[in-house]
Amino acid sequence: MLKSANIFLIGPMGAGKTTIGRRLAEARGLDFVDSDQEVEARTGVNIAFIFEKEGEAGFRRRERQAICELTQRHSLVLATGGGAILDPDNRQWLSARGFVVYLHASIEQQLARTERSDTRPLLQGGNRRDTLERLFLTRDPLYREIADLVLHTDGRNARTLAREIEDHFSRPATAL
Fold this sequence. Notes:
The protein is of the alpha/beta class and 176 residues long. It is built from 7 helices and 5 strands, in the order E-H-E-H-H-E-H-E-H-H-E-H. The chain has helices at 17-28, 35-43, 47-70, 88-97, 107-114, 128-146, 158-170; strands at 7-10, 31-34, 76-79, 99-104, 149-152. A 5-stranded parallel sheet has the order 2-3-1-4-5, with helices on both faces. Helix 1 crosses helix 7 and helix 5 (107-114) crosses helix 6.
């Protein structure tokens, strides 16, 4: 495998990073970690509470520390939070320490997958579509900057996408 035995999944909320990551880790016999869940486990509170008490900056500091440590592990599939790539150090660590897969999701898909969620602080209050569009404009270039592979997730299930990533590593080296 390229770079290391690590696969890092990046992309917006609603792209399926956690679901696909779990399937991929199981198929490859790797550990799976979701960076948002790791931050929650370390703090003992949910992300919404961290945002409420410390703001986005406080959450991003905690996320940065978790990603620094997690990307140093081996044999790992890591699903990152949608905004993890905002930090230049996170981008550098992800890019240097594993194979990065950008799970691209349209605004429509993100709206559909997050419509019933009340646990996403950036979507609280205001127009969800406007927020998702603004986030996309800022983040899409950053996702693409470090991606080794870009997969479009619209209309595709987690099993198929995990298999496609898995198949990517079974191709001859010249095809990569």
